[in-house]
Amino acid sequence: MRELREACGVFGIYDLSGRKDVARTIYYGLLALQHRGQESCGIAVSDTEGPKGKVRAHKGMGLVNENFRPEDLDALYGDIGVGHVRYSTAGASTRENAQPLVLSYIKGTLALAHNGNLINALDLREELEYNGCIFQTTIDSEVIAYHIARERVRSASVEEAVGKAADKLKGAYSLIVMSPRKLIGMRDPDGFKPLVLGRRDNAWILASETCALDTIGAEFVRDVEPGEIVTITKDGVRSDRSRVRPAARQAHCSFEYIYFARPDSHIDGISVYQSRIRAGRFLAQDAPIDADVVCGVPESGNAAALGYSLESGIPFGQAFYKNSYVGRTFISPKQSAREQGVQVKLNALSEAVAGKRVILVDDSIVRGTTSDRIIRMLRDHGAKEVHMLVSSPPFLWPCYFGTDIPERHQLIAYNRSVEEICSIIGADSLHYLRTERLPQLVDGRVHLCEGCFTGVYPMKTPEINIHDALE
User: Which of 446, 389, 406 is nearest to 272 (CA)?
Assistant: First the structure.
């Protein structure tokens, strides 16, 4: 049903107690991050006391619980490892592009998991190809891995190589890199994508979101800071904030708070759930509507709908039954399949909406096709009025940093007024979150990237679409 595609989720662990079953912990961590990508997944592990450089890996297309059987996890013997869930934002949807990537080179082995998009990936790839590199994938993550490997040849440590490679990278990247004896995490200087550090007993964990730490019973230690390199070894955790300077004005992805992250996660000290409640409250303040019930489009619209209800006093209700056993329909390659999938996954509850004036809250409208079908579904089940409220501003520009927002001509808000969009989707009224409200979602505590709403990006963007160029 969703029209947005998430980027990826990363998870890494180094168990200093010497237990060799980290693969199962990674498995559960990836299950907790499954919302960030359902296209492919993988786990790579190593034994720090075994043969140096031997990496055991398993990856494939589809969901985590579809790819890993108990015997697969048994075969992934080791005390250090990294995992990944993917939805493609650059590069084709193939098994070759599944992560973690595992490289063998003169210094040993390297396993890498990456969340984000590089805007200079094509230039970096071309440079490597002219120097004889042969690529096995079409993803920018392989470009990062090759640059780390090249720098490692003339660096004293792998973390130094990560820092040197980062000097060449432009765009969004939260990385977890596994070498034979170290686990390294790094977040780009702008802080586009989240990365957190956790601990469980004598094991250290890096993950995209705090919900993954909760799932495995780990304690949240802190967020990895923009530009920081965290190195985990048998001696503990070291931090390097001097090698890569954080951006003077950081640009955290606003859609982590609006849609991507799980509501039970905290990103940079901010509750995702409370951010969405605030969005709903702001909508109620800026667009008061006389209605009988407020409902959210499951699941990411529910918290904002509750916020609208709390602020307005209009009862919060459940307008839909969601079939949790159907995969997200935006995975379907054709628009027609996505549209048909809406009713497979969602069905309206007649008793909740019949004869009522309904406020329907969703996190975004991209192309508008699914909004049209959902509104029509409510009317078919007897809704008297349907007022659409959106807990983000209109999408007017593409994203280059890891959110798969299509080209401008495919965006329903491009060259259309709110009134025209309202007519197309069949709502009685349509209201978006005001752009100036975005900083208030996070209490002004972090600076957000608003490029997809305003066209003002935190750095110069490529003239061509990086998503299409890497296909």
Answer: 446
- In whole angstroms, what separates CA 286 from the centre of its chain? 29
Q: Residue 292 has what pLDDT?
A: 98
Return the SS3 of 200.
strand
* DSSP secondary structure letter of residue 256: I
Which of 35, 23, 102, 100 lies closest to 63 in space, CA to CA? Answer: 35
45-84 pLDDT, tens digit each: 999 998 887 999 999 999 999 999 999 999 999 999 999 9
pLDDT tens-digit profile of 335-379? 555 555 556 778 999 999 999 999 999 999 988 888 999 999 999
Amino acid sitting at position 469: A
Q: Reduced to 3 DSSP states, what percent helix, strand and coil does the chain have, rounded to the nearest 5?
A: 35, 25, 40
3-state class of 174 per DSSP? Answer: strand
Q: Phi first, then psi: what are they for 295, rounded to 5°?
A: -130, 150
Phi and psi at residue 199, to the nearest 5°: -145, 140
| Nearest C-alpha neighbor of 330 from the set 301, 372, 305, 367 | 367
CA distances from 4 to 7, 144, 395, 451 (A): 10, 25, 11, 16
Mean pLDDT of the chain: 90
Which residues, listed in sequence order, are joined to residue 175 by a DSSP beta bridge? 114, 186
Q: Which residues pair with 113 in a beta bridge?
A: 176
Amino acid, single-letter form, for residue 67: N
Coil vs helix vs strand at 213: helix
Q: Which two tokens stand for residue 449?
A: 């990237």
> What are the catalytic residues?
8
Rounded distance, CA 213 to CA 194, Å?
13
The structure's pTM equals 0.91
- Burial state string for 389-401 with b = 16 or more CB within 10 A and e = fewer than 16: bbbbbbbbbbbbb
The token pair that represents 89 in the structure block: 């934002």
Exposed e or buried b per residue across 79-91, where buried means at least 16 C-beta atoms within 10 angstroms of its C-beta: bbbbbbbbbbbbb
Q: How far apart are CA 293 and CA 414, in angstroms?
A: 30
